[in-house]
Design brief:
The complex is a heterodimer of chains A (55) and B (453). With 55 residues, chain A is mainly alpha-helical. Chain A is built from three helices and no strands. Chain B is 70% helix and 0% strand. In chain B, helix 11 runs antiparallel to helix 13 and helix 12 crosses helix 14. With 453 residues, chain B is an all-alpha fold. Classes of the chains: A mainly alpha (55), B mainly alpha (453). Chains A and B meet through helix 1 and helix 2 of A and helix 6, helix 7 and helix 9 of B.
């Protein structure tokens, strides 16, 4: 199947759209989870990291 | 800051802002009870509609979209207020927006679910919503709409929650006398927030980054909502201007809604010091720009159609201007443009009452505007208009469900303001005089830190 037809079928077939929606929301959820975790990890652990680095 | 201790920046209005959260009055319970009652009536009416079918509404062939879809567009429009005030003005560096960000974001968060609910109510078979997931194809603007609205709802929740996080922790630490379940709720939602400078710095960085993303999403969402109409070849809808027109109208009505909400909060919770009149004056200037921009869009749209003089388009045009919908059209022009512009320019300065009056008119007018964008085209569709000229009169069922949707929005908002501070405490802290800070403990906010370097 030529590549152009394959790309075209993504837009014209029933099904891929729904999967894409789920993937988009799942990706957003993952990014949000990572961001929230990163923010909350900004506690006073920096000192221990500095100590480890010095060792 | 000692280990294990949580830091909260000092805010001179802390007591004032936390006062509504400290106790729930009998007036609140009465209001909530009334709103739950209206919501309950809506649910009953909907169940009846579900059992009997959409025949109980005013919709008929060829009118498949009526008041429900008007509500959908209106609620999604209202939802633009939060992102506009919080994200777009954040990127623009407009610091005056800080006290009203949460009030605006809450409108976004609580109106979006009712926008989605309007779609479900409009579907005779709501279970068919699953078909979008099971058989979705990207040719359909409905799928674009579903993707954009879902992403916007999710991002709004995260954006709102992140900016609320330090204040939830503050509630956890300050409101020790509240019921155990409420205290527990704060503990869970605070996620162990400590308020360290690193946490604040990372939070600011994340919110700045999300503001860029949210600004892109907000433009996408309402443009895609408009494309549900615009991608058809129906007269009155099939125009490239429909996207920007919808977007501008959404930001316009959303900003006007913020004025109404702020005024109610200011009066009900006695927040005059935390929500100064200067906020209303700043919003007034924005609203003047939006009113004039909206007029520009309106003239550009209608003049182009009139000059083109295409038969199908003119059928819809005359329906709006002199036909069945003329009284709604001209009322809308008065409510959205003529009276509000006069008030914003000549009466609104330093007058909250006038600002609220004009903002209510704008929102009623914008609902009517959505109605006359949708209905005249529905009653005079291309080619079919000579065969079938539709008539549409909304029934009591539609009005009852509409009322219950608005009651639901008000209920969520009213309940939220009694459990969480509606003015962001940590974001307004920078407004304090420097001598009131303990500078050793003060978190270094992202933007400020860069400036110092």
């Amino acid at each position: 199947m030529p590549i152009i037809e394959l790309i075209g079928s993504f837009f014209t077939s029933a099904g891929p759209g729904g999967i894409t929606v789920i993937l988009v929301i799942a990706l957003a959820a993952l990014v949000s989870f990572i961001l929230i975790r990163w923010i909350l990890q900004g506690e006073e652990v920096d000192k221990t990291r500095i100590l480890k680095r010095n060792r | 800051m000692r280990a294990g201790q949580t830091y909260h920046p000092e805010n001179q209005h802390e007591e004032l802002i936390l006062a509504p959260v400290r106790a729930i009055s009998s007036r609140d319970r009465t209001l909530w009870g009334a709103l739950v009652g209206i919501l309950f009536i809506g649910v009953i009416v909907y169940i009846r509609q579900f059992i009997l079918g959409l025949g109980v509404t005013g919709m008929n062939r060829p009118i498949y979209w009526g008041v429900y879809i008007t509500n959908f567009v209106f609620f999604i429009g209202l939802a633009h207020s939060g992102t506009f005030i919080s994200a777009i003005l954040r990127l623009a560096g407009a610091d005056w927006r800080a006290p009203l960000t949460r009030a605006a974001e809450a409108i976004t968060l609580f109106s979006l679910p009712f926008g989605v609910a309007s779609i479900l109510v409009d579907m005779g078979r709501p279970d068919r919503l699953l078909n979008i997931i099971l058989y979705g194809r990207f040719q359909s603007p409905l799928l674009w709409d579903f993707t954009a609205v879902s992403l916007y709802l999710f991002s709004s929740v995260v954006f709102f929650y992140l900016s609320l996080l330090p204040d939830i922790a503050l509630c956890r630490d300050r409101l020790t006398h509240v019921p155990t379940w409420q205290q527990r709720m704060y503990q869970i939602l605070a996620l162990g927030w400590k308020g360290t400078p690193t946490q604040y710095h990372r939070l600011e960085k994340t919110l700045d980054g999300m503001a860029i993303f949210m600004s892109l999403v907000v433009v996408t969402v309402h443009t895609v909502v408009s494309w549900v109409f615009g991608m058809t070849i129906q007269p009155g809808w099939h125009t490239a201007l429909i996207g920007p027109f919808f977007l501008l109208g959404a930001i316009f009505s959303g900003t006007a809604a913020v004025v109404i909400v702020l005024a109610i909060l200011r009066k009900t919770y006695k927040l005059a010091e935390a929500l100064p009149i200067s906020l209303f004056n700043s919003l007034r200037k924005l609203l003047i720009v939006f009113t004039l921009s909206w007029l520009y869009m309106m003239v550009a749209e209608h003049l182009t159609i009139f000059y083109g003089n295409l038969p199908d388009e003119m059928e819809v045009f005359w329906q709006r201007v002199t036909g069945d919908f003329a009284w709604i059209f001209w009322l809308m022009i008065f409510l959205v443009f003529i009276i509000p512009l006069y008030i914003f320019i000549f009466k609104g300065k330093d007058s909250i009452k006038w600002m609220v009056a004009a903002s209510i008119m704008v929102n009623v007018g914008m609902w009517l505007e959505r109605y006359i964008v949708i209905l005249p085209t529905e009653t005079r569709p291309r080619l079919l208009y000579e065969l079938v000229q539709g008539k549409y009169t909304p029934t009591l069922t539609e009005w009852a469900i509409t009322l219950s949707l608005f009651a639901g929005l008000t209920l969520l908002y009213a309940v939220f303001t009694r459990f969480f501070p509606i003015v962001p405490l940590w974001e307004t802290v920078e407004k304090l005089e420097p001598e009131k800070f303990n500078l050793r403990q003060r978190p270094t906010f992202g933007r400020k830190r860069k400036e110092r370097k």
